[in-house]
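Hi U.,

Before I forget, here's the chain from the pilot set. I'm dumping it here mostly so it's searchable later in email.
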Amino acid sequence: MFILQRYFLIFFLILTFDLQAKQKTFSSDGKKAIFIELFTSQGCSSCPPAEKYLNKFLNSDELWSKYIPVAFHVDYWDYIGWKDVFAKSEFASRQYRYANLKHVRTVYTPAFVVNGSSWRRGFFNSYPQVQGLSSGKLNVIVDGDSVSATFKMKPPVDDVLQLNIAILGTQMTVKITAGENDGRKSEHSFAVLGYKKQLSDSMQWKLTLPKIKKTNSKRNAFVAWISRKNNPTPVQAVGGWLEDTE
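Structure:
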């Protein structure tokens, strides 16, 4: 009987460890992350240098802790002759919303938006620096396909807030065979493969990960950010890898 109980305990510990290994927690401190959005398109001939710049964050020691890069592929250049494989109309709508709120002057690609405001990377391709910002604490748990999140601000806000979650693909290669970039092999990292959002007036959320199509992504990442209703500007953001390295 003692031996049976011992084996049961060992099995239970192994099972518990396996379940914990599949669970990921993404947390922020009170300092606001620098959320870098790139609006881009595979049909835009001037976009590859901007995407190459964004791809550099893969080698940054401050990736996810300070910088959270996200590439939204828009569909308004698809008519030129090449349909962007990552593009969605809702990503273009996000950029137009920034324009309607006067956060950016006009809608174009490639376009960077940092913490909700237009930003240009400049001649020396420097990383964006945002000083003296504080925000709330965002905690997100991904357990299998389930996502739960809490957000705390001081002082608390009496407002409806939106949780946004996205799965990003990295180090993806796409061979373009038409349009302005015909013949080019395009390299993509931090491209949004799936996106979901949910409103809450309780600072708590429960939802599931977005479904994504199979890609040649070498490693998928997860990002989550809080925004206000009808305003895409990020209030706080977290991010990290969904898969561990072997």
